[in-house]
Amino acid sequence: MSKRKPKTQSGFASFSMHELAELITKPIKPKMKDNKLIAEFMNHGFHDGRHRSFDELRYHESWDWLMPVVSKITRDEQYIDNDYREHLLDIVPYGHIEDTYSAVVEFIKEYNVDNADSEDDACDMLYGVDNNQ
Predict the structure, then answer these.
(1) Strands 7-9 and 12-14: what pairing?
(2) What whole-number distance in Å separates Cα of residue 66 and Cα of residue 74?
(3) Using CA atoms, how far apart are residues 87 and 101, in angstroms rounded to an integer?
(4) Residue 78 DSSP one-character state
(5) Phi/psi-derived region of residue 49, left when phi > 0, alpha when psi is between -120 and 50, beta in every other case
(6) E-strand spans in the chain?
(7) Helix H or strand E segment including 91
(8) CA-derived radius of gyration, the chain
(9) Torsion over CA: 79, 81, 84, 86 (sign)
(10) Lowest-confidence segment of 15-19, 86-90, 95-99, 127-131 by average pLDDT
């Protein structure tokens, strides 16, 4: 995106169509990657015909999508001693989907690192290396 300051017109910022498109679509890409992470954690395969692509996932915007994930994390005994699980339990009662979504993503990332097959795999997960590309 351009480093220049937006032009102002009558006190309102004015952007080109290209700049607006970048502003609108930029936050979506990380959410798609995180939605894929959640879908994999929930064992939602894409060969079962339920979804056609990762961009159809709505964990970031729908409680109907997100709460089954929260339920899995909070009810499964294997996660009881996980600090990120406790953080998630602290966040949920406030009812902000963005915060809950972020806590779920952080839990899954930490869980994946803790359960990686090797130290190299854990480092790849920590630093965002995707060997499946």
Answers:
(1) antiparallel
(2) 12
(3) 12
(4) G
(5) left
(6) 7-9, 12-14
(7) helix 83-91
(8) 18
(9) positive
(10) 127-131
CA 45 to chain centre: 17
Helix (H, G, I), strand (E, B) or coil at 49: coil
- Evaluate whether 73 touches 48 at the Cβ level (below 8 Å): no
Distance CA(112)–CA(9), nearest Å, equals 49
Are the C-beta atoms of residues 82 and 107 closer than 8 Å to each other?
yes
93: three-class secondary structure by DSSP: helix
Q: Using one digit for the tens of pLDDT, what is the confidence trace for 72-108?
A: 999 999 888 888 899 999 999 988 999 999 999 999 9
Could you tell me the pLDDT band of residue 55, with boundaries at 50, 70 and 90?
confident
Structure confidence at residue 123 (pLDDT): 60
Neighbours of 96 (CB within 10 A): 11
- In angstroms, how far is the first alpha carbon of the chain from the final one? 25
> What are the extents of the domains in the chain?
28-126
Q: Determine the Cα–Cα distance for residues 59 and 102; give it in Å rounded to an integer.
A: 10
Structure tokens of 55?
Answer: 């961009």
> Do residues 67 and 38 lie in contact, with contact meaning Cβ atoms separated by under 8 Å?
no
